[in-house]
Amino acid sequence: MSTDQNKFQAIISHCKEYGFVFQSSEIYDGLSAVYDYGQYGAELKKNIKDYWWKSMTQLHEDIVGIDAAIFMHPTTWKASGHVDNFSDPMIDNKDSNKRYRVDHLIEGHAETLSPEAGEALLAQMDELLKENDFAGLKTLIEENKIKCSVSGTVNWTEVRQFNLMFSTQLGSVTDEASEIYLRPETAQGIFVNFLNVQKTGRMKIPFGIAQIGKAFRNEIVARQFIFRMREFEQMEMQFFIRPGTQKEWYEKWKEERLQWHLSLGTDPAKYHFKDHIKLAHYADAAVDIEYEFPFGFKEVEGIHSRTDFDLKQHQEFSKKKLQYFDTEINQNYVPYVIETSIGLDRMFLLTICNAYEEQDLSTPEKADSRVVLKLPAKLSPIKLAIFPLTKKDGLPELAKELMNECKPFFHCYYEEKDSIGKRYRRQDAIGTPFCITIDHQTKEDGTVTIRHRDSMEQERIPLSEVRNLVLNKIV
Ligand code: GAP
User: Fold this and answer.
1) Contact between 129 and 137 (Cβ < 8 Å)
2) Is the pLDDT of residue 2 over 90?
3) What's the CATH number where 98 sits?
4) pLDDT (mean) for 380-397
5) Closest CA to 238 of 277, 211, 261, 273
6) Is residue 390 part of a domain?
7) Least crowded by CB within 10 Å, which of 292, 407, 412, 431?
8) What pLDDT score does 131 carry?
9) 447 and 438 in contact (C-beta within 8 Å)?
10) Domain check: are 155 and 221 in the same one?
11) d(CA 142, CA 136)
């Protein structure tokens, strides 16, 4: 196992041990590719959500947010193309009955080859995927003797399409008419509300509609922890524009979204763009923002130029006009759309992977180490930990006073158990940027020790300055 794989396993264990992520229904042996967020995970996830929401809506006067239902009229998915096209080419191994997504199977094999051979294989695969040449894909798998990881054989079925949408029944009558889907993307809730928002908000093109919400996909190959889940959350924004301006807006949103990622302090070398070779049925251009996870560069966000495909389809299927009258050019048209779509859970995983560090702090006298999450302070689940040095002499009372002063403004944590060193380590492990120790000197001169997570430096500051110091770092 490579060091990066070891690191990834350590991150997964850390997420569980410190209350960030648990396997769903773990006491029943879990549910594959479904996860729950624990006490610190839920906070971190909410902070990422808030950071995205604020930057997309509050800081963009031309974008408003909505919250559409997960269930939508079934015709939505016929119109959007998901009933007919939202599928992946799959192949089954006849000996193990294990099903694989064809691109994942070939990509996995490419990683075992030399860089040149791997690239050549992926180029062949991309060409065949683009042409929807399923027979060619099967031949490619057989010619390269790509084996099933379970049976070890090359006994493959034909390549088939497999729809990724979950369906369920609405109401008590089980007939075809009552079959509805769990949405596989949040975007359609925005498209069907385009006119409602445009009219009631008196929005002028160009403008955007943002949304955060759950999406569901019956992923066949669910790997890499919360990277690919069956129930996940998306943060999407559809930006409605005048036809013909899509190239310019596509470039603008590519840059803007990359800058959003970098604003969290991540090393730019950890990111790159990857253009789509096989475009989704709705797109005329698409690019992924990829981050270097411990298992390689992988997609975290997509920017898609969706043309007028979705609005036109909904117009046709609903028989309702979804047009905009542009007073500047005196024209009626169906707007074009640039979409930015980021997976919240993937952003969560990125944030944890980027923050996780194992540090050896040994000195010649003493072996020592720590695991620290160097989270951006604004995303940390707990912003400030407050420790009375001892449980007596009025120190807990002073610490509680500071808690009461700060907790209306940000999340604080109070602890009086164990040595200060142990308390620091526990906060390092969940990414708390600041710890305050109240000691006997506090009673004399009103100062406290503040300890900084990343540098581990400690300094004395007035107790009265603590709240503002933290507030300044987290806005
Ligand atoms: N509305 C466009 C759309 O849904 P997508 O590329 O299929 O595009 C957008 O998904 C983002 O949603 C991805 O970049 C990824 O971050 C996230 N995502 C997609 N499938 C996911 C899954 N199974 N588990 C977790 N996140 C997923």
Assistant:
1) yes
2) no
3) 3.30.40.230
4) 97
5) 211
6) yes
7) 407
8) 85
9) no
10) no
11) 10
Phi, psi (rounded to 5 degrees) for 79: -65, -40
**233 inside domain:** yes
Q: Which amino acids bring their CB within 6 angstroms of ligand 1? A: 185, 187, 217, 219, 228-229, 232, 234, 236, 299-302, 339, 341-343, 345-346
Tokens of 242: 């005048």
3-state secondary structure the chain: CCHHHHHHHHHHHHHHHCCCEEECCHHHCCCCCCEEECHHHHHHHHHHHHHHHHHHHHCCCCEEEECCCCECCCHHHHHHCHHHHCEEEEEEECCCCCEEEHHHHHHHHHCCCCHHHHHHHHHHHHHHHHCCCHHHHHHHHHHCCCCCCCCCCCCECCCEEEECCCEEECCCCCCHHHEEEECCCCHHHHHCCHHHHHHHCCCCCCEEEEEEEEEECCCCCCCCHHHCCCEEEEEEEEEEECCCCHHHHHHHHHHHHHHHHHCCCCCHHHEEEEECCCCCCCCCEEEEEEEEECCEEEEEEEEEEEECHHHHHHHHHHCCCCCEEECCCCEEECCEEEEEEEEHHHHHHHHHHHHEEEEECCCCCCCCEEEEECCCHHHCCCCEEEEECCCCCCHHHHHHHHHHHHCCCCCEEECCCCCHHHHHHHHHHHCCCEEEEECHHHHHHCEEEEEECCCCCEEEEEHHHHHHHHHHHHC
User: Do residues 392 and 342 both lie within one domain?
Assistant: no
Confidence of residue 472 (pLDDT cuts 50, 70, 90): very high
Point out the ligand 1 atom lying closest to the alpha carbon of residue 300: 16
Contact 187, 311 (CB under 8 A): no
CA of 221 to the centre of ligand 1 (A): 14
Q: Contact, 27 vs 21, CB < 8 A?
A: no
How confident is the model over 134-179, as pLDDT tens digits? 999 999 999 999 999 999 999 999 999 889 999 999 887 666 668 8
In a domain, 43, yes or no: yes
Q: Is the domain of 92 the same as that of 58?
A: no
Give, using CA atoms, the residue closest to atom 18 of ligand 1.
343
pLDDT at position 327 over 80: yes
Identify residue 12 by its one-letter amino acid code: I
In this prediction, residues 369-378 reach a mean pLDDT of 98
Mutate to test the pocket of ligand 1, among 45, 49, 220, 234 (most ligand atoms within 8 A of CB): 234
Q: Give the whole-angstrom CA distance, residue 238 versus residue 306.
A: 9
User: Which pLDDT does position 389 carry in this prediction?
Assistant: 97
